[in-house]
Amino acid sequence: LAPFRSLEVVLLVVALAGLLLSVLAVAGIAGSLSRPVLRLAEIARRVEEGDYSSQPSADLDRADELGQLARSFQHMTAGLAERDKVRDLLGKVASPAIAAELTRRQLVLGGEEKKVTVLFSDLRNFTPLSEALEPAELLEMLNAYLTAMSQIVDAHGGVIDKYVGDALMALFGAPLEMPDQATRACANALEMRTALAELNERVFRLKGFTLGFGVGIHTGTVVAGNVGSPERYNYTVIGDAVNVASRLQSLTRNPEYDTDIIVSDASLRESTQRFRTRRLGEVAVKGKQQPVLIHALVGPE
Question: What is the pLDDT of residues 257-291, one digit of tens each?
């Protein structure tokens, strides 16, 4: 019996050793599989936070499925990084809201009807300033003015549609819906007035004179969308409301009105907040059969 018992012990030891080796082998294989997956999971978390610098470089040369997954992941993150780069570039040449709308939607020509509030702003006394300053100084001053005005538009939820020299056109209600668009536009104009007064302190100290501006605000229906050619186009709005707002801005030059902000009665009726205004009367606007009732925007209620 002793030899049989010795054989049993040997077989048991061999079986246990085989089992241990199997466990170690499985653990090694599992580790070699799980480590790349865990690395990818960590990199994916960083990508979700907008960090595209981490790449699964250690696994790119693998010849198995994990290597293929790592290479596909690298291509995906490169595409995401390029998309964000394009969106950031769009954000510098268009309002961030418009850039987001352009990247979210399929880019096609055409548009949709929207009720929007259009704000036109134009800098005054710019000609004498251009004569008094060197070109570099003039550009610095203009950029300081437009930066201040643009930051105010952004703060009130509006978007800059375009800059034309020292003028700007802002939209409230496109591309993003905005139920209190008229209120925001009026509050925006009042804050622009305050910001210009602060900028004028600097201009007066430098050159001894001040700048002025004119603002026109009107609410109406427009067609909002991509306008241009299939190769190159911009998101903008076109329609009667744009023409009226531009006309009201030009009326601020009329000394009889004695105001730098003119708002249409249509915008005041749409506003969810009351403002101090002064009735200016009705004016004829080219292309409109009915006159437009306008008011001077004095301040908050």
Answer: 999 999 999 999 999 889 999 999 999 988 778 89
* E strands in the chain: 110-124, 159-164, 167-172, 212-228, 233-238, 261-264, 275-283, 292-300
Three-class DSSP category at 167: strand
CATH for 108-300 is 3.30.70.1230
**Domain extent listing, the chain:** 2-89, 108-300
Rg of the Cα trace of the chain? 32
* Integer angstrom CA distances of residue 45 from 11, 41, 87, 98: 50, 6, 21, 28
- Name the nearest CA neighbour of 172 among 189, 187, 190, 184: 184
Tokens of residue 162, six digits: 């375009």
Nearest to 36 by CA among 62, 6, 5: 62
Burial class (CB in 10 A: 0-12, 13-18, 19+), 81: middle
